[in-house]
Amino acid sequence: MTDKNQTKYIFVTGGVLSGLGKGVMAASIAAILKARGFSVNIQKCDPYLNVDAGTLNPAEHGEVFVTDDGAETDLDLGHYERFLDTNLTQESSLMTGRVYQHIIDKERSGAYLGKTVQLTSHLCPEIQNLIIHAGKGFQVHVVEIGGTVGDYEGLHFIESIRQMKRKVGAENVLYVHLVYLPYLSTSKEIKTRPAQYSVKDLRNLGIQPDIIGLRCDYPIKKEQIAKVSTFSDVEEQAVIPLPTIKSVYEVPLNLEKANLGDYIVKKLGLKNGEKDLSTWVELNKKVQSEGKTKLTIGLVAKYLSNEDTYKSINEAIKAACWKEGVEPILKWIDSEEIERGKTESLLGIDGMIILPGFGSRGIEGKITAARYAREQKIPYLGICLGMQISVIEFARNVAGLKKANTQEVDPKTPDPVIHFIEEQKKNIYEKNYGGSMRLGAYDCKLKKNSFIYKLYGEEKISERHRHRYEFNNDYLTQFENLGLKVTGINPQYNLVETIEIPDHPFYIGIQFHPEFKSRPYAPRPLFVGLVRAAKIHNESLEKKRQLVK
Ligand code: GLN
After folding, report:
1. Distance 422 CA to ligand 1 centre (A)
2. CB within 6 Å of ligand 1 — which residues?
3. Which atom of ligand 1 has the smallest separation from the CA of 469?
4. I want to staple 92 with a disulfide (CB 3.0 to 4.6 A). Which of 78, 88, 273, 368 is the partner?
């Protein structure tokens, strides 16, 4: 007899190359199932020996995504949240280091009763338990396995998911494998050979895929699908072409075009519900619409080498622009170049964001940029470190505290306007996952007469955090008297969360990260506010240009 409450598992692996968009594929599968009314959870298994993503370098690895419960995770969780519109938890991020840590702790406390602790007998069941636990209570649980099949690094996950078929029943498991088809320009053909080898690798590890996704930069023909089907033993209808597209948000619709939703539902014996893809259809209309006014948003940062470093902020700005019917031009501004006197890059922007960050590199350049935005009345949003920069800039150039700084950069500054609060270590930091920061969701109470209140439309909001230093309340009255207003407070610990300069078209600093809760179809209010202000700025510049003509 089949158990109605049995969770169905969909495992997503990848082959040939890394960076194919497995995260987007996993998230899109979850999204189309959610659009049919199923309850869906999603999880990423990462081969790294890190315990979490907290210490990874965002310039190399991409942003550290933070969940409501304060987990520091891989950026794929950001895709998942944006596609699934759910607030995920620590359970959705399973890094190898965390499993090892758990097993070693158990071994030290004598939990294995004198047995030898081994990969297959102890690590794999532990991984399976963590997968099953995360999927509990959901109809479908999508699990992405990081890395590329065949990597030595990820073998423990592949072996764990192979065994899942027996553990939970073959009828409750599907394996999806994403491969890459290269294009040879000399012979003008798409080659399937590397994909063939990748499927072979997967089979050697005991897994026969049920569905194959074909990533390719060129349109894929029927013959190629047939060929892949023949060598992989996957039905043609389950070989899904995924040519490169303009926006990742097209993927759910493309999967539906290939009828993947129906196929999965049938294969897993789920009762098919009405599907409602209207969110995706609407979003894509906005994304694809042409001829929109272009807005240049300057992003002042220290790392510029990798688009993924500030992934959620990119997505949040784009989403706000889609909502407002404008097209964003994201202009990356190197704060160190500003420091070296190259300030031309600040010219011609319609809005500015000073991005989050750690350490002292590029700080002075960011302070110069914030001053420019304040004095030239450029719409401005300072996120986390960006807010701290605004406070330092105001302290130095308006309050005349020339040596004001954050203790992160200058521990001995005579005016620590941003400082480290010792008691927070015990009260807050130690409650986090081994962290030393204020992490995850905290409440913020907004002042009713503020601009930010108008944007959110409510007094009590909750946003996510990831930082160590705080606004120093000793300077609060002095700064307020000079025109920098504190408009949001964390009521539990009396911490400043938001600042504004009312005598400016749009100048807001926030200690939290609104980007993490922004969705492509529901951008967070602060980004919408910035884009609206940038639009007005752009229009007034346009008018001036007309007058000059
Ligand atoms: N470095 C700052 C702090 O720790 C800001 C962190 C951030 O921007 N996320 O307080």
Report:
1. 16
2. 356-358, 384-385, 408, 466-469
3. 10
4. 88
What pLDDT sits at residue 428? 72
Judged against a pLDDT cut of 60, whether residue 370 lies above it is answered with: yes
State which ligand 1 atom lies nearest to the alpha carbon of 357: 8
Tell me how far the alpha carbon of residue 199 lies from the centroid of ligand 1, in angstroms. Answer: 44
pLDDT in tens, 224-275: 999 999 999 999 999 999 999 989 999 999 999 999 999 999 999 998 778 9
Ligand 1 mutation target, pool 405, 432, 468, most atoms within 8 A of CB: 468
* Catalytic residue list contains 513: yes
Closest of 469, 493, 501, 340 to residue 405, by C-alpha: 469
What is the pLDDT confidence band of residue 182, given thresholds at 50, 70 and 90?
Answer: very high
Would you give the distance in Å from CA 123 to the centre of its chain? Answer: 28
Q: Where are the domains of the chain?
A: 8-283, 289-542
What CATH number matches the domain at 289-542, 2.60.120.260, 2.60.300.12, 3.20.20.10, 3.40.50.880? Answer: 3.40.50.880
pTM of the model: 0.94
Ligand 1 geometric centre to CA of 476 (Å): 20
Q: In what order do the strands lie in the sheet with 405-406?
A: 405-406, 416-419, 470-471
Is 61 assigned a catalytic role?
A: no
Q: Closest ligand 1 atom to the C-alpha of 384?
A: 8
Q: What CA–CA distance (Å, rounded) separates 414 from 228?
A: 68
- In this structure, whether the domain defined by 8-283 belongs to CATH 3.40.50.11190 is answered with no
pLDDT in tens, 90-149: 999 999 999 999 999 999 999 988 889 988 888 999 999 999 999 999 999 999 999 999
Q: For the purposes of burial, counting CB atoms within 10 Å of the CB of 521, is it exposed (0-12), middle (13-18) or buried (19 or more)?
A: middle
Q: Which amino acid is residue 5, in one-letter code?
A: N
Q: How far is the CA of 344 from the centre of ligand 1 (A)?
A: 27
